[in-house]
Amino acid sequence: MFQPNHYDIALNINRETKEISGTSTITGDALENKISVHQKFMTIQSVTADGQAVPFTFDDQSEGIHIDLGKTGETTVAIAFTAPLTDSMMGIYPSYYELNGEKKQIIGTQFETTAARQAFPCVDEPEAKATFDLAISFDEHEGETIISNMPEVKNENGVHTFDTTVRMSTYLIAFAFGDLQSKLTTTKSGVQVGVFATKAHQANELDFALDIAKRSIEFYEDFYQTPYPLPHSWQLALPDFSAGAMENWGLVTYREAYLVLDPDNTTPDMKMLVATVISHELAHQWFGDLVTMKWWDNLWLNESFANMMEYVAIDAIEPDWHVWEMFQTSDVPMALQRDATDGVQPVHVQVEDPAEIDAIFDSAIVYAKGARMLVMVRTLIGDDALRKGLKAYFAAHHYGNATGDDLWAALGDASGMDVGAIMNSWLEQPGYPVVSAKVVDGQLTLSQKQFFIGEGKEVGRQWQVPLNSNYDAAPVLLKDHEVVVGDYAQLRQASGKPFRLNVGNNSHFIVAYDDTLLQDILDHVDDFDSITQHQILQDLQLLAEGRQISYGTLVPLLTRFADNQSTLVATSLYAIAGELKKFVTPGSAEETQVKAYFDQLSAGQVARLGWQDRDADSLDDQLIRPTVLSAALYAENPAAVAAAHDLFTANRDHLESLPASTRFLIIRNEVKHFGSATLIGDLLAAYRATSNASYKSDLTYAVTATTDPEQITRLVGIFEDTDTVKPQDLRSWFYGVLRNDRGEQAAWDWIRTDWQWLEDTVGGDMEFSTFITFISRIFRTPERLAEFKAFFEPKINTPGLTREIQMDIKVIESRVDLIEAEKSAVTAAVAEAVK
Ligand code: BES
Ligand code: ZN
């Protein structure tokens, strides 16, 4: 064992020859004569200990250099190495872009989870914190900029030296260089904040991010009662980026789509997304960077927390955005859906192998469920105790590491509650309960049981469920299997309101009300606030997915909410309506009826909102407009199709300037109904030419909707053309074609035939397994299920893919069963609704 204290790292990077060479000089404490340091894909030239050459071996299997020091104690180990600069979006890597027709690149880094070892030999584990001195030289041209975690202190003969870092983990080291532009500002407390991007962007595209970053840091300094400890906080947009964003301390990196945006043509959704990504990464500057999880099994401590704080922060600095509604419509359903499949992992999960570490970054579990778990704690203890607890937690563990128990202890002390006992039931167990509320012999009775979608093995799990009832007689926590609340008639009389659980939808469970209680709720549904209405739809949909009620009963309910003007309700309504599509075969008479149903649902809102953004629009109006227009277009409503066509024709020569809120729909409509090879060619050319990430994603969405088999073949043909489709964007192209009824076969054939290419290209990527997840969202027939199994079952032992393959087989199986069981009920209900 070797415990590093300080690193002196010298790197020389040559973009021309794609070579990295350097030395990593590590001073630390050797607990044994023989030590190991991480490396991957390197050639090690020499190793010295306190200046003397020592014997060593290295290999990629163990990702290590094994050194015989011949002594223990304080030692300075110097390792000289060379390494390749590869296009893997991991380690030190180039990002490509074009400026005025010229091909250019930015060199950047991505080290989490285990890629720092590809950049310099190091003890690459979160607990091995040390200070770092970085000196970097490269084939530098006039006017290029280099940035890192800390400010540059010296530039001598092209060697850029950065100030010594604070004590930190290797996975948070970062640097980047190239032809960059930037915008800078300063927080109230004097921290320099900056946004950096390539010059392919207009300068004003950096403004929004700069403002959000500055105010987020100011918010966190106040909320955490702990200063931001570095002189600067840089935000950098990289043209090639595997994840969404990365919280490197002092130099946060982002996908371009999540940092730069055109302030003159964007949507409220895009602004909220960019803002929450920034506030997520900046939350990590404390939670993750200042205090780091001890080992990757406690990854949730980083990610669940940042995922909650991103909403807390944006809600505080932009209260009018009602950003928690986005949590309700994105994170909450994702968590409830995935966590209901038997075989899902708990939030806290044991992990050793590097390939498995990346696989636990599951957006539905570690992010969405974990955040919801913490929202539950926040609701339970309140913000005062939360802030007090966090302040103590930072003070106790700063520049060090922590576990979940450390956090529960701090929050427990601050609140006087046994937070750990409550939370461990959620943290350590997979799944969540459905709480049944029933009137039994006049007594209002509650009981809990694990909820499953698809086959699930009942093993008697129980949770400590914060009930948040609107009846005071109900307990704060349901700890047992069952509890009797009291005489229902009396309680109902005293309250004057229908009985409800999980008010605010902040606890991770769903409710199955018996007929009496449900009818009471539905009789008063118009009196409830939008979050309650959204929650009623959400819980009923899950119960239908879990086959506890018939899917057909949802149909008339949707009709009742069709004209509701809340984003929350409209989003959940169209999410359910969208699920109805899976019950009908493309091109069938039943599908025509589902389309008619969409037309009926959307007609009122389309008439109310129209195609043009208006000054008088509320935020809800702006958010709902694309949803209802999309429904009308799916319904092939002739007026909607014509309106979109007219807008396209009028703006044919400057499509990018169409309003971002409807641009994707207008172009897609054109491709679907008025498409030609020339049109697709023009759109692909526009795709290659633009640096506007939001326009690019609109074009992907539009082009992949083509119904022409030749054009489908053409699109699949560009999947491997990395000059057109960047590997970071391949998943959305693949998914676009796969979910197109006319493209499904071609996309499925492609991924099976070229799996090896895919693995070679993006296999090291932390989000690789989501290619499989996406397929499981689409497949719905017994034939596809069989093909899926035939292809993926032999791959089940691939590190990092095992759980995903097992889960996705279950997901498709349960969908196939659901359709078989419910198809006739659904089509009958739809036929009845449109009669
Ligand atoms: N630390 C992660 C990035 C990451 C994920 C690195 C997986 C290595 C493996 C970062 O803080 C993060 O959570 N990014 C999200 C975006 C975020 C706003 C939800 C991502 O990349 O999806
Ligand atoms: Zn994160």
Question: Describe it for me?
Answer:
This protein has 835 residues and is of the alpha+beta class. Among the domains are: 1-178, Sandwich (Immunoglobulin-like); 181-286, Orthogonal Bundle (Neutral Protease, domain 2); 302-427, Neutral Protease, domain 2; 433-535, Immunoglobulin-like (Sandwich), CATH 2.60.40; 645-703, no CATH class. It is built from 26 helices and 28 strands. Helix 1 crosses helix 2 and helix 4 crosses helix 6 (363-397). The protein binds ligand BES and zinc ion. The site of zinc ion has 5 residues, from helix 2 and helix 3. Monomer. Residues 208-426 form the Peptidase M1 membrane alanine aminopeptidase domain. Its cofactor is Zn(2+). Its EC number is 3.4.11.-.
